[in-house]
Amino acid sequence: MLLVLCVDLDDDLGRKTGVKTPVIGREAVRDAAVALATVDPEDSDTNVLFQGIHTHDELQTAGEAVEVAAVTGVDGSDVQANRAVGEEVDRVLAELATGEEVSAIVITDGAQDESVLPVIRSRMPIDGVRRVVVRQAQDLESLYYTIKQVLADRETRGTILVPLGILLLIYPLVVVANLFDLAGAAVLGVISGLVGLYSLFRGLGLEESVDRAADAARNLLYAGRVTLITYVVALALIVVGGVQGLETLEGVQTVEGDAIPVGTAIAAFVHGFVQWLAVAGVTSSLGQITDEYLAGRFRWRYLNAPFYVVAIAVVLYAVSGFFLPEAPGVTALGLNDLALALAVGTLIGVLSTLTFAVAESQVPSIDPTEPS
């Protein structure tokens, strides 16, 4: 059996005429169409109802077992409207219980109403879809619905309208800049740069990474994490270390002359930088260990981190000093001093590893959340 199903997604029929839906049967659908045409002759749903009657008559003349019905949604969100249409389709099928399989020919007045097709298809097969609009308005209606869907989507709206809005502001901002004796070209360059950065930002999908970083920073701040402070301190120490490394490099250049080998320049920078880097590493690792302890995840082996940092710093400081001449800020080391420093760095790393491995095997890990 074929069911010619007229769909009015925003319930113009019920709201404007008071007709109870679903409407089932040719005569009932015709009366509903006349009532809607009388109240609002310009409503496109009137065409849908009359097209449904016309399609019903054609199929009946061809010898098909056919019935016509009209279902409506609600004047609200598409989800609510689709659910309402689904409920009315269920009621129509219940009243048409003939023991035969029912398939539908759906009549709509545009692309928006066709969003309900998956709901109908979940209840019965769809043999065809007929969109009925006034011929000269078909393209306009489709364009209107497309624009409406684009503006309703938050992501698409931000991607399209924000750059468009910035571009439209370029000319008035340049005019305002000229009024205040500012360089219009500079303003244009700044705006163009902002548009370019925004396009790269959106194109590379960096908004998700930035959102995750902001959430992580917010969680650290609200949770009272010690690492938030120690990381800031470590960053400041690294900046100071970079300045110290450059000063050491300048001191070596004063002694050796401007044309120094690349290896010597790298050794000079490392020699001045590594001390501050070690302090930054110890600071950040102690903050991380403190947070792990407060969170109940402390393990003895975590204490290896600051010792490893010190051991690596001792080795780098000694190796870089071995290749440098006597200069301001440089501790020049001989071969014996280098061997001693390497031994000390190795011992620090090995002894810390053995000590905390034994401690972890003999002493339970500390969990401040457990009752003493």
TrEMBL record:
Residues spanning the membrane:
158-176, 182-201, 222-240, 260-282, 302-323, 338-359
**Could you tell me the keywords of this UniProt record?**
Membrane, Transmembrane, Transmembrane helix
**Protein's UniProt keywords contain Membrane:** yes
What InterPro entries does the record tag this protein with?
DUF373
Q: Give one Pfam family.
A: DUF373
Name this polypeptide is given: Putative membrane protein
UniProt lineage: Archaea, Methanobacteriati, Methanobacteriota, Stenosarchaea group, Halobacteria
